Amino acid sequence: MLIPLKPGELLRLIPAVATGPQFTACSGDPRKLLQRVLISVIGGVIALLISQTLLFRSQAGPVFLVVGFVFLLYVLWGPILEAGRRNAVLRRYPAAAIFEGVVADQFRREVVENRREQANRQGRLELVENRRTWLCLELEDEDGYLGQIRFPLEKKHELIRRGMVVRCLVLSERKDFSRIGALSDGWLPQLKQWVGEYPYLLRPAFEELCLRRLG
Fold this sequence. Notes:
Distance between the termini: 13 Å
Structural class: alpha+beta
Number of helices: 6
Radius of gyration: 22 Å
Helix content: 25-40%
Strand content: 25-35%
Shape: globular
Number of strands: 8
């Protein structure tokens, strides 16, 4: 079942500016956070040192001072910028609709989240992979298969079963939705549980909209 959104509803459900959950999702794991901190500190310190050197000698001094503060705040604006970019990908679609269907199938998949080289006991470099188990849900309705939602597996997801109702947004370049471009995160009303790799939607607003449109 696809229920097309009214004009403006998509932009209200997927904000242009990062929400709290989106900021958290884009902050990344401790490794990614450490990278941001290093970039912020190193870039900020270098720019501020240059600004102090040029402050009274060149008009570029104030510019480097501003650049330094921008770098120091990278830990904050980095996730905001990334969330805005991800939101913009779905906001650009001309057609969006509420989907209500069921979980047709589910399966697990090992996903390599990052790779790094590490020295072994013999001093030789070897490739180390960090893997994580993801759960994949295949969605369908009376018209057949729609698509797939994937996300890292957590203990709470053990309650998900085939046949459970799932709701999400469907995005398409075509008004007739003959070709699906993207799916948002999904809502499982029977479990009162959200699933998805990234929290695109303003979730309370989507739940309220589903109650009005689907009952």
